[in-house]
Amino acid sequence: MNPAPTSASLLSIRRLSKRFGALRALDAIDAEFSGGEIHAILGENGAGKSTLMHVLAGLLRPDSGECRIDDQAIRLGSARAARSAGIGMVHQHFALVDALTVAENLALSLTPDADWRFDAVAVGEKACAFAAQVGLEIAPPSAIVRDLPVGARQRLEILKALAGAGRVLILDEPTAVLTPPEVRLLFAMLQQVRAQGRLVLFITHKLREVKEVADRVSIMRHGRVVGTYRAAEVSESQLAELMVGKLEVSPHIRRPPHAGATVAMQARELSMRDHRGVVALDNVSVTVRRGEILGIAGVDGNGQRELFAVLAGLATPESGQIEVGGKSLSALAPRVLRQVGVGYIPPDRHREGLVLAMSVAENLLLHRNVLRRFQRHGLLQRPAARRWAAALMQQFRIKAASLDAPLRSLSGGNQQRVIVARELSQPLAVLVTSNPTRGLDLAATRAVADALRAAAADGCAIVLISTDLDEVFDLSDSIRVLYRGRLSDAVKPPVDAERLGLLMAGIQAGKEPCNA
Amino acid sequence: MQRLINRVLPSLLALIGALVVSGLAIALSGSSPLLAFEALLDGAFGSLDGLSEVAVKSCPLLLTGLAVAVSFQAGIWNIGAEGQLLMGALAIAVIGSRATWLPQPIGLPLALGASATFGALWAGIAAQLKLRRQVNEVISTIMLNFIALGLLSYLVQGPLMEAGGRYPQSDALSPEFLMPRLSPYRIHLGLLLALFLAAAMQVFLYRSVAGYEIRATGLSPEAARLAGIDVRRRLLLALLLSGALAGLAGGIEVSAITRRLYERLSPGWGFTAIAVGLLGRLSPVGVVAAAFLFGAMDAGSNAMQRVAGVSSVLVSIIQATVIFFLVAFERRTWFSKISAEPD
Ligand SMILES: Nc1ncnc2c1ncn2[C@@H]1O[C@H](COP(=O)(O)OP(=O)(O)OP(=O)(O)O)[C@@H](O)[C@H]1O
Ligand SMILES: [Mg+2]
């Protein structure tokens, strides 16, 4: 064993800069990180957090500056160099190969470069053993990644990075789609990693998590690190202020809808199996009334994806029916549902929400009703459509180089804002959302929450499928829990977290745990 | 400006790369690459006749290139432009040698319409197979190429064989169905029609709602579907349009150039079209440029063979190498969808 170097710094960054066109995404950043610490990175959407991490992981070549690990300069702009220097990364957006199996994906980071053999079975076994060792539950090694729920993909990403990481583990918003028990598990793992003298860089928008797990926290703003603090010495509200300046607390008093309000959407006795033949929805009935926000909590993978898909008309249930505004629909397709005023914020923004190769403006138009509105003689009324898109961009503070910037170039949170802006721009009878604030910064999360409340106040019925308990608590008029495809009875807030936690683990008050 | 450069650069690099490689090949075979290229250029652009031939060779490539572009933009890999072209040729040959009572101003447009319809129907088979039976369109369109070729070969040796019965070819079209040419050259009115259609496709794809929906469907079918776009109808529309354009290419070729039907009617335009479409980055404007480039190479190749002694087949090598280089220079190609997106 080598003695630890006296300068405690494990990773140091010197005057790192990266520009995209006129935008300084990283503006001469200096930073020191030591081994054996969990270092949180906070910052608004578009502050440059992901860009910095991509540079560290060798995925982006900076314009200038240097990075040292243990006082050794690492070659920048090479993912391989970063990896052999011991940097592993979990991306904000999944970097898994969708068409491959779980085992094959893990093999990509578990198999040493020099090894030309590929033995998926052996890798699968190794992966399972490794997963068991760190206590992370993963999908069966032979499952195809494409078919996994978002939470399971996230766990797989974390496992992959853990396996590959030597000295530095980078996590870009890993908790955005995890539920509290999963987050706790992740934190326990991170503490283990820290105990081994490694460095964890951890990006999040959730201040509570910073307080809970981080030793130090750096705050980024407009491509600079504007301050580094001991997590124990700053309060959550101080952090919030450091990040975005003073936040006004909007007093959101909203009268819950009265029980007699008309039913906006009703789904009856939905049942469906996933493609493996496992029951994903088991006789689920959902009713939302005008002006009501119905929270559907639960650990991801318990039927959330299928419930969203069925309510969106993307998947056909084996049985059951859906009515909107008291009328049954001619066909269960997004087209028809959109027509009667149902809006959607989908769980996977890259797959179902956006067209990455199109521009910001074109993505704001990606909605049947919007297209209809700007159509004349089959042609798109471009000037009018662009004016409208520009107004939305301003209203929702979407940070992008221009209306014509490819959506791909926006930061994760700004991409989410595009979806939210588009969906809320239309008159809504019903809004079905899945983790609507995923990846949004503090200010934007509040803005979306306020927008949802405002929509509800205008009579929109909202189905809020979310793994974020805070969000569910904060917004819902009543809460139901999805567990193994079954929906619990509604509980009215205030609910104690304990009770909800039990429901999410499948334990009903006074009943035995329902084993499948 | 920057964006224009970004869009054109890969195609330009691919072209230069292909010229370098084929230049080396010529040098290795003991001829002078400079002389060969000079002859190629001179053959294509050195005379009015050459220019006219460039136009003649470009026309079918332009239309089939558009066919490829519109279907690829929708995310449908229509490899069947060749078969659709042959069906279009068949349609005009049947009508053009029989329906002689029609006056030209009515007969010719009608016959060309029939060509487009036949092409669309032929593509429609693949569309139905895809939408109803989830049959991969790459496989079905390739198979339909073979069927079209087989059918054509049977017909010109049997039912449609010319009255004299000497060669496996159909009767000549009656004059009412011939595309007007600018004599004494072979350049014909069909080229104007093709250019007009290219402009129309440009407007359709980038200015119309249906075009937007087709592009969104091709780039991200799930997102398009959730947006409420009728993805199946858009796929059908794109494939039918594609077939119609290819069919029209066949119709124009028969009515303007060959004037009758025979087996080796097309030297593989429907396949070269894929190269033209990709080189033109699937945009109609780009396809026009790519089609003229390939057309010029075809037109100049004979002169090159005559003057420099380099086989005219070399032109096919250049065209194929262009595709290799395009794929190599393209970071996000249609062939490798990268799943990790930097955000
Ligand atoms: N490839 C790119 N081309 C152009 N601009 C880019 C590109 N990648 C990032 N940017 C811009 O750089 C800025 C920083 O982006 P980055 O993704 O680092 O933000 P972030 O701090 O991770 O935000 P978020 O919390 O929303 O994920 C953004 O304004 C973004 O639009
Ligand atoms: Mg980010």
In short:
The complex is a heterodimer of chains A (516) and B (343). By secondary structure, chain A is α/β, with parallel strands linked by helices.
Model description:
Chain A contains 18 helices and 22 strands. With 516 residues, chain A is of the alpha/beta class. The radius of gyration of chain A is 23 Å and the shape is globular. The model of chain A is unreliable at 1-7 and 509-516 (pLDDT under 50). Chain B has 343 residues and is mostly helical. Chain B has a single domain, classed as ABC transporter involved in vitamin B12 uptake, BtuC. Helix content of chain B is 72%, strand content 0%. The interface between A and B is large, with 49 and 26 residues. The structure holds adenosine-5'-triphosphate (ATP) and magnesium ion. The site of adenosine-5'-triphosphate has 21 residues of chain A, from β2, α1 and α15.
Notable features of this structure?
heterodimer, A: 516 residues, alpha/beta, 6-stranded mixed sheet, 18 helices, 25% strand, disordered C terminus, B: 343 residues, mainly alpha, ABC transporter involved in vitamin B12 uptake, BtuC, 0% strand, globular, binds adenosine-5'-triphosphate, binds magnesium ion
The Rg value of chain B, from CA coordinates, equals: 20 Å
Low-confidence stretches of chain A: 1-7, 509-516
Would you state the CATH class of chain B?
Mainly Alpha
Q: Quick one: which chains have the greatest interface?
A: A-B, 49 and 26 residues
CATH topology of chain B: ABC transporter involved in vitamin B12 uptake, BtuC
Structure class of chain B: mainly alpha
